[in-house]
Write a structure and sequence with these properties.
This protein is an alpha+beta fold. The chain is built from 15 helices and 18 strands.
Length: 591
């Protein structure tokens, strides 16, 4: 009996241990010493073969068969054969180097597979990652401003003889490899990019007869996808952080393309948990405002009331703090961490003041909706009263497009006036990658869909013309004049669009060429061209109101908690629009 009892207890313990380890994604041999000290990785990774050789060093016999690196290998496996091996040989004065292009911006590192040729010892190399050709060819520091901030992109390492080494964790498209020691031989069987990403489907889609708009939509989606790492980052090379204001365009794009994904609440909760009140998120008052606005929009798209209830205590305390930042006349008095909308607007202090007034109104209106949903009628009423008080003050936008956009969205400036007087002036001139989304939204409110579509083609399309495969931290259409694209060596007579421009935190090569806050056109085109607008939380009711402008047809899909909606619009020869919609059960359409 005792033996049976002991056996039963042992079996039970083994089953419990196995269940625990399975929950932690650990093999069953791991014990409870790892309890609370392990966490799963929700990402996956694949290995990518280089697409082309951009550049290679000159010199007799120092680099043999570089084209072999463009052939798919045997999945990173070392071999004794020297077939298709690239040989790098240095002398006392010549150090061979090669620059590879992996075809698109990715997040991850590289895998270097070596073969048998050469001495039986490690070989020292230098690795340089770059989002552009010029960055991969640059030195750290100096006039061009290349850095190792946030992620190492320029370093030395040793690779084994007849083995495999994996290194790197950055955002890049290009990789330069230099042999870094004299009189050495390195036999390279493969150099693969290690692409780390969330393996999730693109549930939303957008297609039209304008391939430029199609590419812009997909590039915005891909830009955010790259930044959906363990948390929702701002950039994959630099600013690998959770920035709350920057998250709003990303969250709108995620809702449009991927639907519900745990990276959003995980990131919102991180910001909440590391920011005890009365501190401001990311040290900026405006970013705490965006936390409230994001929660409002996330709830409308996903309809998760239980998750919203988890925010009630912090939301209530934050709103009560914000009430103290409005004076008796309705003027906002935000302080701490700087008065910030986005970087390009920073010199225009009067315009920033106007933008913050409008952003506070948007915040209190979002807060009123959330408090009603959470059953706090008194707090909802106070939010509405405060927003109405603030609307009595109409500040001077000072010709700042960021401010005029928020003033139109908040209702303190007629959208048509904001568009005519400010937003449409100069077209895409003075647009910004972050606030461009709100400029487009304000133009839609003004009914200027054609003007907004032109700005999308000119501004975000301009980045594509410059070789972008993801959208950038900042961009100015003036930079394009006599500039070489990022995927070429820059001729002496041309401007380097990556190294010669930028300001604030993104000077020169420090500039991130993959920033999620630049994805706004993706969400905008699905909302206003395809015409999908969320009317009731959880997408229970959608309004389909397309604005094709000069397009002949558009079709696409939109994810909801109930399933994917399929939509197509096509202009007939008589000028009328034919619309077809297929909806899942649980979704009602109004037109």
């Amino acid at each position: 009996m005792n033996i049976m009892k002991k056996g039963f207890i042992l079996v039970l313990f083994t089953l419990l241990l196995f269940s625990y380890n399975q929950a932690q994604n650990l093999p069953p041999v791991f014990g409870d010493e790892y309890a609370g000290k392990s966490f799963p990785d929700s990402r996956t990774r694949v290995y990518l073969t280089p697409q082309r050789i951009v550049w290679q060093s000159s010199g007799q016999g120092t680099l043999q068969n570089p084209g072999g690196l463009l052939e798919k290998g045997n999945n990173g496996q070392s071999e004794l054969t020297d077939k298709q091996v690239c040989i790098m040989q240095s002398t006392g004065s010549e150090y061979p180097a090669i620059l590879l292009d992996f075809g698109k911006e990715i997040q991850g590192g590289i895998q270097i597979v070596t073969s048998a040729k050469g001495a039986n010892k490690p070989v020292k190399i230098r690795v340089r990652f770059g989002e552009s050709v010029s960055e991969a060819m640059s030195e750290v520091g100096g006039a061009q401003g290349a850095t190792n901030d946030h992620a190492m992109r320029d370093f030395y390492m040793e690779v084994p003889w007849l083995g495999v080494a994996e290194i790197g964790n950055s955002g890049f498209r290009f990789v330069r490899i230099d042999l870094a020691e004299p009189n050495a031989t390195l036999s390279l069987k493969e150099i693969n990019a290690v692409f780390t990403y969330r393996d999730i489907p693109y549930l939303g889609s957008f297609r039209s007869n304008d391939e430029r708009l199609n590419r812009i939509w997909m590039t915005g989606a891909y830009t955010v996808h790259l930044n959906m790492q363990e948390y929702l980052w701002d950039g994959i090379k630099r600013d690998r952080l959770v920035w709350l204001g920057d998250l709003h365009p990303e969250v709108m794009t995620i809702s449009t393309v991927f639907g519900n994904n745990e990276v959003v609440p995980k990131s919102l909760d991180l910001a909440r948990d590391i920011t005890p009140l009365p501190n401001w998120m990311n040290g900026m008052a405006a970013y705490s405002l965006w936390w409230i606005i994001i929660h409002r929009d996330w709830y409308y798209y996903q309809g998760d009331l239980s998750y919203l209830r988890e925010q009630q205590k912090y939301l209530t305390d934050l709103l009560n703090l914000l009430f103290t930042k409005v004076d008796a006349s309705g003027q906002e008095k935000l302080d701490g961490g700087g008065r910030f909308l986005d970087w390009p607007s920073s010199p225009n202090e009067k315009g920033v003041d106007a933008g913050l007034q409008a952003l506070m109104i948007m915040t209190f209106e979002s807060g009123a909706e959330l408090c009603t949903l959470l059953g706090d009628a008194a707090l909802s009423k106070k939010c509405t009263e405060t927003a109405n008080l603030m609307k009595k003050r109409v500040p001077d936008h000072n010709q700042l497009k960021q401010a005029a956009a928020l003033m139109a969205i908040s209702g303190i400036m007629p959208a048509k006036k904001a568009d005519k007087d400010v937003l449409s002036v100069g077209g895409a001139k003075n647009f910004s990658t972050f606030y461009g989304y709100y400029m487009l939204e304000a133009q839609a409110l003004a009914g200027n869909y054609t003007g907004a579509m032109k700005n999308i083609r000119d501004y975000w399309g301009g980045m594509l013309d410059m070789g972008a495969t993801s959208f950038w931290e900042d961009f100015d259409i003036e930079w394009m004049k006599n500039a070489a694209p990022i995927d070429e060596l820059v001729p002496e007579e041309k401007k380097d669009i990556h190294a010669d421009f930028g300001a604030y935190c993104y000077k020169n090569l420090r500039h991130s060429l993959c920033h999620g806050w630049a994805s706004g056109p993706t969400a905008w085109m699905s909302k206003h061209i395809l015409g999908v607008q969320v009317v009731e939380p959880g997408c229970k009711v959608l309004r389909i109101e397309p604005h094709l402008g000069d397009l002949e047809w558009v079709e696409g899909t939109f994810p909801t908690p109930h399933g994917v909606v399929h939509i197509s619009h096509r202009k007939g020869t008589d000028g009328n629009m034919e619309t077809k919609i297929k909806v899942p059960e649980g979704v009602r359409i109004i037109q």
